[in-house]
Amino acid sequence: MIEDEERTAAKIEELQSHLKDLRLARKQEEDLEIVRSIRTMKLGARELFSLLSGIQDGSVSIESLPDPDTGELADLDPETSDAGKEEDIQIMTGAGDAPESEDHNHV
Q1: Is 78 contained in some domain?
Q2: Distance CA 61, CA 71 (A)
Q3: What is the pLDDT of residue 32?
Q4: Is residue 104 part of a domain?
Q5: Sign, Cα dihedral of 41, 47, 52, 57
Q6: Residues 82-99: pLDDT tens digits?
Q7: How far apart are the C-alpha atoms of 58 and 96, rounded to whole Å?
């Protein structure tokens, strides 16, 4: 009886460790997906800073738009979709849109 209890406790500990590793891997994949999506936006430095600041302070949110053909939300799996394209992402701001262009001339 005591041996069964010890084996069960060891198995639980092993599974909890495995679950922790899986959650860490999922978080890392989600972070990479966010980075990939933002990179596809091809924003200038100021626009990127403004976007990230807005996301952090809650004044900007990013939502997937429905696919015009199916009405379903975009597939967010980076292996099977073009998630992150500008037409798949809608940026909602509380303050109006950012300017269309930024002066990129460096002297």
Answers
A1: yes
A2: 21
A3: 93
A4: no
A5: negative
A6: 444 444 445 554 444 444
A7: 14
The answer to whether residue 105 is domain-embedded is no
Measured CA to CA, the distance from residue 31 to residue 25 in angstroms comes to 10
Entry pTM:
0.48
The tokens 């933002």 sit on which residue?
A: 38
**Three-class SS of residue 40?**
helix
**Domain, as residue range, for 64:** 2-93
Amino acid 23 reads: R
C-alpha dihedral sign at 92, 96, 101, 102: negative
CA distances to 17, 43, 73, 78, 96 from 90, in Å: 38, 15, 12, 18, 13
Which of 35, 85, 27 lies closest to 55 in space, CA to CA?
A: 35
In a domain, 98, yes or no: no
- HSE-up of 14 (CA within 13 Å, CB side)? 6
Domain count, the chain: 1
Give the rounded distance of the alpha carbon of 69 from its chain centre. 24
